[in-house]
Specification:
42% helix, alpha/beta, 8 strands
């Protein structure tokens, strides 16, 4: 599998990123799943075995209303459901002027008021800011102790991430658009990240994310995989030290329908995922929900 990964990576000059690397990720996961099914064991056991009895998840609140009253109510409800960590998505950026910045600051304050001091609050701006704006926001909200600010600017601006990290006490997170161990290493050498968030479906698969975890551990930076999908991330996290991979991301609204065709989609209880028990990644389709199947051959 290592040889095949390397051959795929070297097969095209553009394979180091984008759709090529996503395709390599898909092949890599198919091979891990086949290996697990062959040996009749979960992938995390092939990776060394479980390091915990369950995997804690943070609530990723993409899609929830940011109206003050509704956001506060949702945050309080998630706390009651057992989530010790919540991530919210700030809606405004430099183009929205002082009023937008005020709203971004007010949301942090309102959420802190809603959940108290014993819940961690993270914030994501999906690469929508610049360094000056991020530093201004950070200075205004440091007193509310955000757990991190995520993707404050575009992924290629490593120096901006490094300057932001030096300019605020708020941890700096990024990684879903960082692809491969070489880019992660560049970030960490620059002191640019407090949390690495590479996505196993995008960064080169479980094989590559394992290497990224090793590199991150050299810098004492945790890896909390981006959670647009869950199966591969959960198996990888389960196999790593909690010091290296402490949490999983759970996109609450997205996951309500994302695994519609599966018999047993991963769902947390009290913010914790039980370790998967099926072979491979444990994916089984619910035949009653499939109207048509067609085998497509590539000639």
């Amino acid at each position: 599998q290592e040889k095949l990964w390397d051959q795929l990576y070297r097969s095209n000059r553009h394979a180091r990123r984008g759709f090529f690397l996503m395709a390599i990720s898909a092949v890599d996961h198919a091979l891990w799943d086949l290996r697990g099914r062959y040996f009749k064991t979960p992938v995390y056991r092939l990776l060394g075995g479980p390091t915990r009895q369950s995997i804690e998840a943070y609530a990723s609140c993409l899609g929830y209303s940011l109206e003050p009253d509704k956001a506060q109510m949702r945050a309080a409800q998630l706390k009651l459901e057992g989530y010790r960590y919540q991530k919210w998505f700030l809606a405004y950026g430099p183009g929205d002027g002082p009023e937008g910045l005020r709203k971004n600051v007010d949301l942090v304050r309102l959420l802190r008021e809603a959940v108290g001091d014993d819940t961690e609050l993270m914030f994501d701006v999906y690469s929508g800011w610049d360094l000056t704006y991020a530093l201004d926001w950070a200075k205004r909200v440091e007193r509310f102790r955000p757990r991190w600010i995520e993707e404050a600017t575009q992924a290629e601006k490593i120096d901006s991430f490094a300057q932001l990290r030096k300019g605020t006490s708020i941890p700096v997170a990024s990684g879903e658009h960082i692809q491969g161990r070489w880019e992660v290493y560049d970030y960490l050498k620059a002191g640019a990240l407090s949390v690495v968030q590479c996505d196993p479906e995008w960064c080169g698969g479980t094989t590559e994310l394992l290497k990224i975890c090793t590199i991150a551990s050299l810098f004492d930076v945790p890896v909390i995989p981006h959670g647009h999908s869950l199966h591969a991330a959960l198996h990888l996290i389960a196999s790593q030290s909690p010091a290296v991979c402490p949490l999983a991301e759970y996109l609450i609204l997205k996951m309500r329908s994302y695994y519609h065709f599966e018999k047993a989609p991963p769902v947390p209880t009290q913010a914790h995922f039980a370790l998967p028990s099926g072979p491979g990644y444990g994916i089984e389709f619910d035949e009653t929900k499939i109207e048509k199947q067609e085998l497509v051959r590539w000639n």
